[in-house]
Design a protein that fits this description.
single chain, mainly alpha, 4 helices
Length: about 120
């Protein structure tokens, strides 16, 4: 059976290759190579963790808003209702939903970020 590399595997492979050639580059291109490798790593995490994070966010927003729907529509409505002050910190479940969504997005965008007081992950 023929299998193809998954998209996230391709991104990881290119990022790893960039990291192997980076030490031999001049400083400017070494920096740009690092930026490219970081971007590919983010793409890989988005591909592997993004769907679950989006599903979790949609469920959390649906609970706060009182109805379901596509992620983008729920997000737009949630933002509009927060901007209009219809939803506030006193809204049941809002802060927990926002905390979960922010944490999931940070795990994709900045996986080494640790909130103050959070112990590092175990090896």
């Amino acid at each position: 059976m023929i299998t193809h590399p998954r998209t996230e595997e391709l991104a990881q492979a290119v990022a790893a290759w960039i990291d192997t050639i980076r030490p031999g580059l001049d400083p400017r291109n070494a920096f740009l190579a690092r930026v490219a490798a970081n971007a590919l790593a983010t793409v890989g995490r988005e591909l592997t963790r993004g769907p679950a994070a989006e599903a979790t966010a949609a469920a959390a927003m649906a609970q706060v808003l009182g109805h379901g729907g596509p992620h983008a529509e729920l997000n737009a409505e949630l933002c509009a209702r927060i901007r209009s002050a219809e939803l506030t910190v006193a809204t049941p479940g809002l802060l927990a939903a926002l905390r979960t969504m922010a944490s999931d997005q940070l795990a994709i965008d900045q996986p080494s970020y640790r909130p103050e007081g959070t112990p590092p992950p175990r090896p």
